[in-house]
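Re: weekly structure request thread

Next one in the queue (127 aa):
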Amino acid sequence: QLHLVESGGGLVQPGGSLRLSCAASGFTLDSYYIGWFRQAPGKEREGVSCISRSGAITKYADAVKGRFTISRDNAKNTVYLQMNSLKPEDTAVYYCAARRSEYWTLTSMSPEMYDYWGQGTQVTVSS
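Done, posted below.
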């Protein structure tokens, strides 16, 4: 069974930081490109960031550029999302997702491209 497990969410004050982790079990992440998505109450799921198999290609939503950084450690079978300068509007459930690819530099911000999803971790930014 292929599983993705997110961790690292929580309650943080505006301006604070969190690092989310996405750990894979049952498969090796280096064959997959990975995306981070979020969904706030009453809103559609939106792409936050994504990373290619090699890690050389990364993409970010405009709302998080300059504040969030995606990275991957294939040896640890884990992808990270470092979130700095958090704002109340970043409050959401954050999900990671994976898509198997033969290409080392391909990735996508579209949720419909992904095959495997984690269960999500709650991030709340509030004073």
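Residues 47 and 100 are 18 Å apart (CA to CA). The mean pLDDT is 96.
Next request, please.
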